[in-house]
C-alpha cells in the first residue's frame, strides 16, 4: 500500500468509545470531579458550548506545567527506540509513541476539592476563579453520546469529517518518573503514557482525565490531499445548560475574591442561575 492509499484509508477511520477502558482505572459513576477555571474562561466555554482539550505535548504555557505529559518514560526510551516495525524497518516504537502523543488531547479534572488545585490553576484572572463540579457518570454519558461515531463529525478548515478520536476516561497513575518502566515485559499500549505522571511533582492533583486520541499510523488528509495538522487544542462541543439540567454539573463554587456579581449577571443573560448551594470554597 503506497502512502497515498494509506492516507485515503485512514481519513475515513472512525473513532471509538472507551476502547481502552480495561487498561485504565475508571472511578465510580457517582465520583465528583472538580475543574478550576477562570470566570472569563467559564463564560467563554458556556457561550461557545465547548470543553477545552489540550494536546498533551503542548503543556508549557503556565507555571507547574507538565512538559513530559504523555511522553515515554525515560527508562523506556532506549528499548522503544530499538524496537522496529517488521513492515517499516525505518520506523521504531519510540517514533510511534511520539506520533501518538502528537495526536492525543486531554481535559483534566481533580477527584478532590483541594487547596492544591485552587492555588495552582486558573491564576491571573481579573474576575477570579471558579470550580465547576461534575458528576463523573453523567458527564461520561453526555460526552459518549456527543462523540458517538455514528453521528458525530469533526470540522477542520471548513470541511466535515467522520469523528476520528477514541475517547477514554481514567485516573492518572503517579509513578517515580526517573525509575519506573512500562515496557519491561512488552510494549505498552500508547494510552498508558497518557495516564502516567511524575508522583513527586503532580500526585496532589488527584487527576481524572478525559483523553481524545487519533490512530497514529499513516496520515489524515483533506479532499485536496493535504495532510491534516493536529492543532495544540481542540474545542469539544458541550452544552452546559443541558449538563446543568441533567445534574452532570452539580454546582459552581467561587473563591471569596471572585466577582460573584459579574458572574451572576452574565449567567443570567444565558438563563443560567447559580444554585443556592453554589458558594465560596
Which terms summarize this structure?
281 residues, disordered C terminus, DUF2971 domain-containing protein, 10 helices, 26% helix, three-stranded antiparallel sheet, five-stranded antiparallel sheet, alpha+beta, 26% strand
In short:
Residues 1-23 are annotated as: Disordered. With 281 residues, the chain is α+β, with helices and mostly antiparallel strands. Helices cover 26% and strands 26% of the residues.
Can you give a write-up of this model?
The chain is of the alpha+beta class and 281 residues long. Helix content is 26%, strand content 26%. The chain has a five-stranded antiparallel sheet with strand order 9-12-5-2-13. The radius of gyration is 20 Å and the shape is globular. Residues 1-12 and 276-281 have low confidence and may be disordered. It comes from Parachitinimonas caeni. This is DUF2971 domain-containing protein. Residues 1-10 have a biased composition (Polar residues). Residues 1-23 are annotated as: Disordered.
List the helices and strands and how they pair.
Elements lengths: L2 H8 L21 E7 H10 L1 E6 L21 H5 L2 E2 L2 E5 H9 L2 E7 L4 H6 L8 E7 H11 L6 E4 L2 E4 L2 E7 L1 E3 L15 H4 L1 E3 H4 L4 E8 L18 E5 L2 H6 L3 E6 L5 H10 L12
Parallel strand pairs: 10-11
Antiparallel strand pairs: 1-6, 2-5, 2-13, 3-4, 5-12, 6-14, 7-8, 9-12
Question: What does the main sheet amount to?
Answer: 5 strands, antiparallel
Q: From the helix content, strand content and strand pairing, which structural class follows? A: alpha+beta
Which parts are unreliable, with pLDDT below 50 for 5 consecutive residues or more? 1-12, 276-281
Task: Report the principal-axis shape.
Answer: globular
Please report the total strand number as a whole number. 14
Question: Average pLDDT across residues?
Answer: 89
Distance between the termini: 58 Å
Cα-based radius of gyration, to the nearest Å: 20 Å
What is the tally of helical segments?
A: 10
Trace the largest sheet across and list its strands. 9-12-5-2-13
**Helical residues, percent:** 25-40%
> What share of residues are in beta strands?
25-35%
Order of helices and strands: HEHEHEEHEHEHEEEEHEHEEHEH
Protein name: DUF2971 domain-containing protein
Organism: Parachitinimonas caeni
Biased composition (Polar residues): 1-10
Region (Disordered): 1-23
